[in-house]
Amino acid sequence: MTALQEIWFLFLAVIVIVYVILDGFDLGVGFWFIFAKDKHEDMTLNERKEIIQSIAPFWDGNEVWLLAAGGILFAAFSDVYATVFSAFYIPLLLVVFCLIIRAVSIEFREEFPSPLWHRVSDFAFIFGSLGPAIAFGVLIGNLVQGIAIDANKQFTGSFVDFFNPYAIIIGLLALSMIITHGAVYLRVRATEKLAAKATQWAKLGIVSFLVISSCSLVISLLFHPHVQNNYIDLPILLIIPIIGFVFIGLTTYYIWNEKDAKLTFVLSALSIAFSILGAGVAIYPNLVFSSIDEAYNLTIHNASATDTGLLVMLIVAIIALPLILVYTLWVYKMMGTKLEDEDIVGY
Questions:
Q1: Residue 168 has what pLDDT?
Q2: Of 216, 240, 251, 339, which is most buried with the most CB atoms under 10 A?
Q3: What distance in Å separates the CA atoms of residue 162 and residue 166, rounded to the nearest whole number?
Q4: Is residue 345 situated within a structural domain?
Q5: Which DSSP helix (H) or strand (E) runs through 288?
Q6: pLDDT above 70 as % of the chain
Q7: 339 belongs to a structural domain
C-alpha cells in the first residue's frame, strides 16, 4: 500500500465529480426535450432548437472528462477496468451507441428542414441522453451492491443479474439527479420564456430526486450495511454527507422559491459533488464489491498498477489536467452567456 494509490483514488473521484456536474446538465436537458415545443412555422416557439443551442458549445468538451475517468481506470486500476468492462460489456456498448447517436443528432439536427428528420433526430437526442444516465446509475448500483467476482478477479455472473431492484433504483436516482441539474442549467442559459418553463421542470425534478434519494438511502442502509463501515469507524467523516444534505436542502429551497438562477446551479453542482464524495468515502478502499466473498473485492490496493506506473502517470496528470480545466473554464466564460431570441438560429 502506498500513498500513490490513495492519490489516484482521489483523482478518480474528482474526475467523476467534474464529469457528472458538466455532462450531467447536458444529458439532463434531454429529458425535458420531451416536453419542449418544436414549431417549425413559428420560430418563437421552437424550444427544442433552443435547448440544443444551449448546450452546443459545451457537450463535446464535457465528455472529455468521461474519457479521463476511463483512462484513469485503464492505467491506474487496470484490474477494475478489465473486470468491469468485461462484466458490463453490453450495457457499456449501449452507452457508446447512445453517445454516438446523440452527437449526430446535436450536430446535424438543423442541417435539414424536414420535419421527419427532426423527429428522428429528436428521438436520437432523447434516447442518447437518457440511456447513459440510467446505464451509469445501474452500473454504480451493481458495483456497490456487489457483482459475482471470483478469486481470479473474473466476473462469473450473467447479463440478467444486472437488472436487480437496487441497481434499477440507483439508475432512477442518477436520472432524477441529472434531469434536475439540467433544468437548473436551462434557467441560467435559456431565454426568459424557456427559463420560466425550466423553473417548473426543476421543481418536478427536485421532488423526484428527494423521493428517490430518500428511498435509495434507506434501502442502502438496510440491505447493504457495508456502506456504513467507514462512517462508523471514523464518525468525523459524517461531515461530508451532512454538508451534502445541506446543499441539497439549499438547492431545493432556491428552486422552489425561484431564487437566483446562477447560484442555484452552483448549489446543485455542490450537492452533486458532495453526494458523490460521500459515496466514495462509503466504498473506500473498494472499487468493486464481490457478491461471492468480500475477500475478492477489487480495491485500490489489489487492483492498481505498479508504483512506478502510478508515479509516471501522476506527473503527466499534474501537467495535463490543469490545462484541460483552464480550457474548460475559458470556454464557459466566453460562450456561457444567456441566450437571446436572436441567438436561436437554423431551421
A1: 95
A2: 251
A3: 9
A4: no
A5: strand 286-288
A6: 96
A7: no
